[in-house]
UniProtKB/TrEMBL annotation:
Residues 5-152 form the Transposase IS110-like N-terminal domain. One of its GO terms (biological process) is DNA transposition. Pfam families: DEDD_Tnp_IS110, Transposase_20. InterPro entries: Transp_IS110-like_N, Transpos_IS110, Transposase_20. This is IS110 family transposase.
Amino acid sequence: MGRYVGLDVHSKHSVYAIQDDSGRLVGEGSVPTTTEGLQLLRARYELPDATRVALESGTMAFFVARRLTRLGFAPLVVDAHEVRQKALRPNQKSDRRDALELCEGLRRDVYRTTVHVPPEAIERLRETLGRRRHFVRLKTMEVNAVKRLLRATGLPVSTRCLSTPTAWERLLKALEVEPGLQAFCASHRAVWLCAHEQVATLDASLRAQGHAFEAELARLQTVPGVGPIVATTMLAALSDVSRFPSAKHVASYAGLVASTYDSGESVRHGHITRRGSSELRAMLCEAAHHAGRPSSPFHPYFTSLCARRGHKMAVVAVAHRLCRIMFTMLRKGEDFDINKLGIERGRFEHKIVRHYRRKVAVATKASR
């Protein structure tokens, strides 16, 4: 007779509930959240290989799922929001009840939103990208803080390009007439330099980790506007491309599809859903800005949308297209092919003939 295990994971101890095929409760209790504790659980109830174990998504979910796989279990990570929505008593939460809900839902096969557990190499890429994103935001915060200080004082000092240590040196030299303000900016510069060094260190770590995915990253960077960070983010977010049935599902995973309301005779399309990986969506939009350059093969598509729907919507549309193209390249193992974009290459000159124009203003002599 089969066994189904529901595991409510916490940092120190995890609460479990075990049922058989008929729904009879076989056992319940708690074990330490360690490899030894999980081994004790299996030995205590003589659980066979490939026993299915359900656990909620959370901080410890991937760690425990990998340990369960090594011990011969078949873990299933379920989205915590779905577990709460389908709970019998959602307002009466306890660790024991959560374990029972997970066990019952696993036995009845009611959960749809399962979370993919990436390999450890992909997980390290995700963590490194997350730390890099943190320090990049810290650099932006320091630049914005200095801009706010200078704007409040009304000094005509340019802070447009505070992206290098040399630019910060020029700013501090220009503020020698204001020692107090210079001291404030120097403190922000110190934090910016620290974050800048950490970003450089993390970039080196990403290059070292990328050797295992060298072919995929090189393939993605053949797309115009896609650099190492965008390619690495795409690869880390998708992890295993075979888990997506089509490019449409990948665009939905990135949150780049329009929300839809279709009921009766009413059909409305709204803003993009913004579900899934926010970092992947942001990086794709960064790459989509490259389409604004005339040298980009996406420029005809971008300018047509920009004229009809506006700049922001054109950027999102190009990001959506980039997402689908990059997924197809990874799935088929092909490089970027410009011939599939439906454009032609060449140096085209556009001349406009106008029949009218506004009169040029002519300065008149002052009346005597």
